[in-house]
Every structure is written in structure tokens, then in C-alpha cells.
Specification:
By secondary structure, this protein is α+β, with helices and mostly antiparallel strands. It contains three helices and ten strands; from the N terminus they run αββββββαββββα. The chain has a single domain, classed as Protein Transport Mog1p, Chain A (3-Layer(aba) Sandwich). The protein is globular.
Length: 175
């Protein structure tokens, strides 16, 4: 839970114009890999490592995608996997909602869970905040198969629901 909190703080710092002290390199990518998950998100980004090991992709327009990966012990049975997914959903939901409340963010699309192909599950939460007297968004996604979880936090300026509309299909197309 502390790791999720540190990543959340990093994402919040990105919105308020602060950056990580690690060295960034420019990369053009056709997709973003997060552990065993691959998301069809392409572009040219300044890519750097955060203090907790997360990777941050900065777009030229100032938006950022913070990604991280977590692994759980493998679960042998379908029932065990179902329980692991339910436990992960509950933990992620509590953490994200608590952090949004602490940041005084306004949740504009409540926590959602969606089943994806290949026994994967998507969690999301869309919030808006004000930063530098402008509307900003924090869009949180997590994809899990019960034994691994990849997270993507999108931060930037603009309408949160419109931004989520752009990112939802890319995240849902995870391979």
C-alpha cells in the first residue's frame, strides 16, 4: 500500500509541475510494456525512472503516464484467482479513493471494474483537480490477471472525462 501511495504522490507532483530527479531519455514507442502487459500507446516521450522504480512517460504537451508493475504469488485454481482479483479490486479501490479524497480531487467517474479477454480485469477511476488555476485530470488504471498487476496513471491538463475517453480504448486493448 505504501508503494501505491508513493506513486500517487509522484503523479500529483507531475501535475503541479515538479519532476523526478532521474535522468530522462527520449524514446519513440509503438506500445508501452508493463510487466507481462502491453498497451498500444504510441508516441515520442521523455522517459525516466521515479524514486520507487516506476517509469514515467512525459508527452511533449506536458501530459504524463506513470506506469508500474506488481507480482503476486501464482494462484493454482480458478477460485483462487477469482478471490485474488476481488481482493486486488478492493485494495485498489480503497487506496485510490482515499488518495483522491486527500488530494481534494473530484471523482467524475467512480471506480469501475471491467472484465477483459484472456482472464484479465481492468480497474479505473477518473478524477479532476485544479492545478495552476487550470482544470487537470488524474486517470488511474490497473490491469490484473490475478497474479500480476500493471498500473497506468495518466495526468495532464484538460477535461478528465474527455481524456478518459481517449485513453480507455488504448488501455482496454491490452495484450
Amino acid at each position: 500500500m505504501a508503494v501505491i501511495h508513493r506513486r500517487w504522490l509522484l503523479s500529483l507532483l507531475l501535475i503541479f509541475g515538479m519532476t523526478s530527479e532521474s535522468t530522462a531519455e527520449t524514446r519513440t514507442v509503438q506500445s508501452i510494456g508493463v510487466g507481462p502487459f502491453e498497451f498500444p500507446i504510441s508516441g515520442t516521450f521523455e522517459v525516466s525512472r521515479g524514486e520507487s522504480g516506476e517509469t514515467v512517460f512525459y508527452a511533449s504537451n506536458g501530459d504524463a503516464i506513470t506506469v508500474d508493475f506488481f507480482r503476486r504469488p501464482p494462484v493454482a485454481t480458478p477460485e483462487g484467482r477469482t478471490q485474488a482479483v476481488a481482493a486486488t479490486a478492493a485494495l485498489v479501490r480503497r487506496s485510490w479513493e482515499r488518495h483522491m479524497a486527500e488530494a481534494k480531487a473530484i471523482v467524475v467517474r467512480p471506480f469501475q471494474q471491467k472484465d477483459l479477454p484472456h482472464s484479465r480485469h481492468l480497474f479505473s477511476l477518473v478524477s479532476r483537480v485544479e492545478s495552476e488555476s487550470r482544470e487537470a485530470y488524474i486517470i488511474q488504471y490497473a490491469v490484473t490477471d490475478g497474479s500480476a498487476m500493471g498500473t497506468l496513471f495518466f495526468t495532464g491538463f484538460g477535461n478528465a472525462l474527455e481524456a478518459a475517453g481517449r485513453f480507455d480504448s488504448e488501455v482496454e486493448a491490452v495484450k
